[in-house]
Amino acid sequence: MKKVYLTQCSSFTARHGHKGTLNEASHEHHFTYQVIFYGPLNPEGFLIDFREVQQFLQERINTTLDQADLNTLFTNPTTENIAIWIFEQTRARFAQLVRVRVSEALDRWVEYEGEGRSGALAQAVLALGSNIAPAKENVDRAVQALAQLGEVKTVSPYILSKPEGFENQSDFINAVVILQTSLGPMELLKKLKELESELGRTPTFPNGPRVIDLDILFYNDQVLFEDDDHFPLFIPHPRLHEREFVLKPLSYILPDFVHPKLQQPIYQLYRDLMKKKGTPTCRIL
């Protein structure tokens, strides 16, 4: 799997001054900055759609900073703090971001990567499921274990669902969790696979019984594909809109969240699926 670095540049002009030891009056500076992304290419051969990046930088970064008085935005309006702010704003939207460089002169750059390249906290929406006894306790244990990866903000009602794909097995207990985490998408996926093993999951066959299943449904509002040759990762989860046992609990905790690829809110996806299915196969415990 090929991995590449890609860089997007922009600039803005703003005013700031420093009091105290510098005792500097407010004056104008012209800043140039670069946002640098890294990761594997998607099936079409792209790491990221730079049109989205350009629009984001214009709407979120440049509009805020251009012609601004930086002293009203930052306690210490240094180039270093500006780099950190740009990183945190951009990383919350684009997980592939690894570095921000900011310069006021051609020969002087400030670079910021963030702690462990994790940047700002992200909202990850996870699906949990188990159908090996004690299934409810397995899901309880998984929710508790997720605290190792961040802060569990919300847990949906538990759902009892019929198995899909392979029907000759026990019913599933399913739930959806909102996790606030500093882990990037691929880091999070790997940690989830480790947790599955720690909680007792062993390899079976596709759609077969499992002690616990942990999947990433959403990561902020990103659309991405990553593959490090061991763990292919699609975000949003490519089949969530076809699964009642996912949409039903999602509709309780994130009904208005808009699917970033399908551009429809969860409640509408759930309503459309139920019209198509006709008969529910899930119920709240």
3D structure, described in words:
- It is a single chain.
- The chain is α+β, with helices and mostly antiparallel strands and 285 residues long.
- It has 2 domains: 3-117, Tetrahydropterin Synthase, Chain A; 122-284, 7,8-Dihydro-6-hydroxymethylpterin-pyrophosphokinase HPPK (Alpha-Beta Plaits, 2-Layer Sandwich), CATH 3.30.70.
- 27% of the residues lie in helices and 32% in strands.
- It has 6 helices and 12 strands.
- Strand 3 and strand 4 form a beta hairpin.
- Helix 5 (244-253) runs antiparallel to helix 6.
- The radius of gyration is 22 Å and the shape is elongated.
Main features:
285 residues; alpha+beta; Tetrahydropterin Synthase, Chain A; six-stranded antiparallel β-sheet; four-stranded antiparallel β-sheet; 6 helices; 12 strands
Helix content: 25-40%
Give the number of domains.
2
Q: Classify the fold: give the CATH topology of the largest domain.
A: Alpha-Beta Plaits
Q: How can the largest sheet be summarized?
A: 6 strands, antiparallel
Order of helices and strands: EEHHEEEHEEEHEEEHHE
Kindly report the oligomeric state of this protein.
Answer: single chain
Question: Could you tell me the strand content as a percent range?
Answer: 25-35%
**Helix run count:** 6
| Strand elements, count | 12
What is the CA-atom radius of gyration, in angstroms? 22 Å
Distance between the termini: 43 Å
What overall geometry do the principal axes of the alpha carbons give?
elongated
- The CATH superfamily of the largest domain is known as 7,8-Dihydro-6-hydroxymethylpterin-pyrophosphokinase HPPK
Mean pLDDT, as a whole number?
86
List segments where confidence is low: pLDDT < 50 over at least 5 consecutive residues. Answer: none
Per CATH, the class of the largest domain reads Alpha Beta
Question: Helix- and strand-based class?
Answer: alpha+beta
